[in-house]
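Q: My labmate handed me this sequence with no annotations at all. I'd like to see what the chain might look like in three dimensions before we decide whether it's worth expressing. Could you predict it?
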Amino acid sequence: MGQSSRFPLAVHVLVALSFRPKDFISSDSLSGTVHTNPVVVRRVVASLRRAGFVISQPGVAGGVRLAKLARRISLLDVYRAVGRGELFRMHNPNRACPIGKRIPAALAEFLPKAERAFERSLAGVAIEDVARKVWPAFFATK
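A: Here is what I predict for the chain of 142 residues:
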């Protein structure tokens, strides 16, 4: 019942691309930095491409690169691009249990507010902001 890693993986890919914005980077290279299978990277990249965040170039020298400036891509944009769903998905409680039958309604009062606060927080952070945290020295010379 764990949370999906697609969102942090997508952020990682975009941050990696932001350090070489004009270069096409292969999914094999990206899989090295995110430490996962290139097939998983390609699936996430496909979502990012559909959202207009990356462009791809086929072939031996191909790969992906940013289609937009890193400062123009918010974490909320990325979160929505990789299959947002519900942040707090309700499990299937036992309806015969007095607690189980009431917990969905009780949580329904609080969880949507928490999700909206989470999304507002993500909207205020760009990929470039994350990149600056990852590698401050890279930006010190710019």
